[in-house]
């Protein structure tokens, strides 16, 4: 039991939290491409990303796993991203830290979404039963390429305007 919930229920709640983080994050990222702050959605994205990271550490711990390690990396990226956004208002070089951090955080969530999809969706799992076959690598490569291109463009285009 985790905070009074079964692991299955807790997992469903965490999935919902993460999907909200991803959906709001995609809107925020495309807002950055258009140099729009989207303050309310940005708050939702960052709050639900924090919740995603925190809830990830609430599962029973047996050993360091790739998911746990990614949670640590995400938390390390989250801290300067939050500082850039809320303490320094994305001014000066903090703008770049915020944009890159937000894009990375969203990428991490989408990376895990793809991993989970290939593990849990029967059609996808049949393509990659071991999780290291070409379809999985291609999907992850496309996600990485997407975030590299869109993150770079967001970095170049985003300027502080209301």
SSE arrangement:
Elements lengths: L6 H27 L5 H18 L9 H22 L6 H27 L1 H6 L6 H24 L5
Description:
The protein has 162 residues and is an all-alpha fold. The protein has one domain (7-157). It is 77% helix and 0% strand. The protein has six helices and no strands. It has helices at residues 7-33, 39-56, 66-87, 94-120, 122-127, 134-157. Helix 2 packs antiparallel against helix 3 (66-87). The chain is globular. The model has no long low-confidence stretch (mean pLDDT 94).
**Structural class determined from secondary elements:** mainly alpha
Q: Report the radius of gyration as a whole number of Å.
A: 17 Å
**Span between N and C termini?**
45 Å
The coarse silhouette is globular
The total count of strands amounts to: 0
Low-confidence stretches: none
Helical fraction? over 70%
Please indicate the count of domains: 1
Q: Classify the beta-strand content into a percent band.
A: under 5%
Mean pLDDT: 94
What pattern of helices and strands is seen along the backbone?
HHHHHH
Give me a quick take on this structure.
The chain is mostly helical and 162 residues long. Helices cover 77% and strands 0% of the residues. The protein has helices at 7-33, 39-56, 66-87, 94-120, 122-127, 134-157.
Which keywords apply here?
single chain; 162 residues; mainly alpha; 77% helix
